[in-house]
Design a protein that fits this description.
With about 425 residues, the chain is an alpha+beta fold. The protein contains 13 helices and 26 strands.
């Protein structure tokens, strides 16, 4: 089975668990040729008028200017790129293909994609919503039997927040929000400007004034982000190297507004899953963890594995192409860990009505001598040097949101139960 993820920030093609193709949804069109993927991206700053990166997003018949050989409109670019991708796999219509679509795709664009896929000769059997796939792949925390989670992803032109309802063994899409401020292209342009300013300040070279150095900067920065390590950018100019160091923290700070817009689109949920594409952007996953919800960072093969796990359900009887917005949930044996807040400390005491009692004296919060209500409230235990709290009843217990499963606790956490406020604090011994 082939799995095509046509998210234009990084289009991938898998055959079962083998990666066959990975490249951005970018095209270069000139009088002699049409190039796609990395080859096109490596020309995008040298020949900006011949670079195109909207065709997978638009999926329409808008004209391409200037046109090229066999290319008149955006749909032609999708056709040629999809054909090139499938040629890598020597695929034909007899081989089942499941397409993963960005959650924000419209019905009209999806219909055009399916029409183009038929013309290419692809054996598309189903299209699966990307956000639902992320939730199905997310190894949701044990104990969250009925909850709501957010799946955070990014395309070239927008962030995507999918709200997914989890009911027992099934995940189902509720709604999708596209955040245009959080597209990879927009974030990357901010990083390019930051790096260019550093070069001007530290080396007197303005890389954006010369097409060759601008392309080098674009390529080098992309390599750093993809590798997830290193901070040095070197540019070759006038037979010499110019270099600057930009920390991942500086890149994350530059993208603060973009990440804040993405975080603001996350509503009242119980957990968050961040796709591998989003997690690769410096600081994005850390910003999600600041919401103090369980956050799962999905590995690169997670979406494909979710499709393979649900293959029978997705393919159905093969009579018609299906658009799938519900899948079986995959659950972990352990709850997702809650990130420690900045400077987080382990709590030693539970405070209620101004009275602090050692945590060991209150296995259940209702055991606190100042608690006026009768329990059970919520359990507190220490294991492996970590303090954990978990609900002891069906009552509405909250700590930065509903407490529905066991989670790590930190000094400063406030827990509400039946209108009674408990606070976890660290007392110096």
């Amino acid at each position: 089975m082939l799995i095509l993820d046509f998210n234009d920030s990084e289009i991938t093609l898998w055959r079962d668990d083998a990666l066959l193709y990975r490249a951005p949804g970018v095209a270069h069109v000139d009088d002699a040729q049409v190039l796609f993927g990395d080859e096109a991206a490596q020309r995008s700053r040298l020949y900006p008028g011949q670079s195109h990166d909207q065709f997978w997003r638009r999926l329409n018949a808008e004209a391409v200017a200037p046109p090229g050989p066999t290319v008149a409109n955006q749909a032609d670019l999708v056709y040629l790129h999809l054909k090139a991708i499938l040629d890598v796999a020597n695929a034909d219509a007899a081989e089942d293909l499941v397409a993963l679509a960005p959650g924000a795709i419209t019905g009209e664009r999806l219909s055009l994609f399916l029409g183009i896929a038929r013309e290419v000769g692809a054996g598309v059997r189903a299209v699966v919503d990307g956000g639902v796939t992320g939730a199905a792949a997310g190894a949701l925390p044990a104990g969250l039997e009925d909850c709501t989670c957010a799946v955070v992803d990014v395309t070239r032109h927008g962030g995507v927040v999918s709200t997914i309802d989890v009911a027992g063994a099934e995940v189902r899409r509720r709604n999708v929000v596209e955040v245009v401020e959080a597209g990879v292209g927009t974030i990357f342009e901010g990083w390019i400007a930051l790096a260019a300013d550093r070069f001007v300040t530290e080396t007197r070279l303005d890389p954006l004034r010369i097409a060759a150095t601008e392309q080098q900067l674009f390529d080098r920065l992309g390599e750093l982000i993809a590798a997830g390590e290193g901070t040095r950018i070197e540019l070759d100019h006038d037979d010499g190297l110019r270099r600057v160091d930009i920390s991942r923290e500086a890149l994350a700070h530059k993208a603060t507004r973009n990440y804040d817009a993405l975080a603001a689109a996350i509503g009242a949920v119980d957990a968050i899953a961040v796709t591998h594409r989003a997690a690769r952007l410096p600081g994005l996953a850390e910003r999600m963890k600041q919401l103090e919800l369980p956050v799962t960072e999905l590995p690169e093969d997670a979406l494909g594995q979710a499709v393979r796990d649900n293959a029978e359900r997705i393919l159905g009887d093969g009579a018609a192409v299906r658009y799938v917005t519900a899948l079986a949930a995959r659950r972990g044996t352990e709850p997702a860990r809650r990130a420690a807040p900045a400077g987080g400390r382990l709590p030693t005491h539970l405070v209620c009505a101004g009275i602090a009692v050692p945590i060991g004296h209150c296995p259940d919060a209702s055991d606190h001598p100042a608690c006026a209500a009768q329990g059970p409230a919520f359990d507190i235990r220490v294991e492996d040097t970590q303090v954990h709290i978990s609900p002891a009843s069906d009552d509405a217990t909250t700590v930065d949101g509903p407490l529905r499963a066991e989670r790590p606790a930190w000094a400063g956490d406030t827990v509400l139960w039946q209108g009674i406020e408990f606070r976890l604090v660290a007392v110096e011994q």
